[in-house]
């Protein structure tokens, strides 16, 4: 986890001062996922809210991709490659949602799967 991602969630909960890098990543994904989930419900009446939530999520994935390509990243190459593929999907799908040609739910699903992985869950709901 890089310093940018840590700073991205630094003010999320000032009372939570002992956080592992994995906890910080989980929190960042939880924030972005919650914003998208809440915004999707208002898509027809408040597209600006959807765009803002998608931008937040895209920023998170950009930071993650930057970290994955850094020399100091110690994740296994196969996992890094898979996550970079997901980052590219997120970028492309976000554009489609913003253009009105796709739904945001797959982005929420990807984030939810990442959150499950960060918690060590097998992907079951």
Furnish the topology, listing elements before pairings.
Blueprint: H1 3-8, H2 21-40, H3 47-68, H4 77-98, H5 105-118
Helix pairs in contact: 2-3, 2-5, 3-4
Keywords:
125 residues, mainly alpha, 5 helices, globular
Summarize the structure.
The protein is mainly alpha-helical.
Walk me through the structure:
The chain has one domain. Helices cover 67% and strands 0% of the residues. The chain contains five helices and no strands. Helix 2 packs antiparallel against helix 3, helix 2 packs antiparallel against helix 5 and helix 3 packs antiparallel against helix 4. The longest helix is centred in the middle third of the chain and has 22 residues. The model has no long low-confidence stretch (mean pLDDT 87).
Residue windows where pLDDT falls under 50 for at least 5 positions: none
Pattern of helices and strands: HHHHH
Instruction: State the domain count.
Output: 1
Number of helices: 5
Terminal CA distance reads 26 Å
Residue share in β-strands = under 5%
Main structural class: mainly alpha
Overall pLDDT confidence: 87
Shape label? globular
Q: Please tell me how large the radius of gyration is.
A: 15 Å
